[in-house]
Amino acid sequence: MLFTTGCTAPEPELVKSLRFEPPLFDSFKQNTTLRYTLTKPAVVSIYIYNSKGSKIKTIAENLSLTQGSQSHGWKGDNDMGEFQSAGIYIGAVAVKG
User: Using alpha carbons only, what angle is made at residue 41 by residues 12 and 76, rounded to the nearest 5 degrees?
Assistant: First the structure.
């Protein structure tokens, strides 16, 4: 799987170091971790979209987080728990300060 990220924030400096870690592949587990740093407390929503632009997974929605390093995992499934095939996926992060 290939991942890309995008972030919307009212203050560009609110989110630093936004990145997906490379997926870990083995025959029993496939997952990736999104890591970022908040420069102050914020409300975060994270969604995964497929290459057709359809939202397939809600990782977090209106989650109140403190300042500092954050991480969220995605195991390659959709909102119904169905594993998704190899492909290109987009992680969208919305942050409200």
Answer: 75
Give the contacts of 70 (CB within 8 A, at least 6 positions apart).
35, 36, 37, 38, 44
For the whole model, what pTM was predicted? 0.79
Would you put residue 53 in left (φ > 0), alpha (ψ -120 to 50) or beta? left
Three-class SS state of 45: strand
Give the number of other CB atoms < 10 A from CB of residue 25.
11
What one-character DSSP code corresponds to residue 97? -
Task: Return per-residue pLDDT of the chain as tens, 97 residues.
Answer: 445 556 665 666 777 767 666 655 544 456 788 888 888 999 999 999 999 999 999 999 999 999 999 999 888 899 999 998 888 888 888 888 8
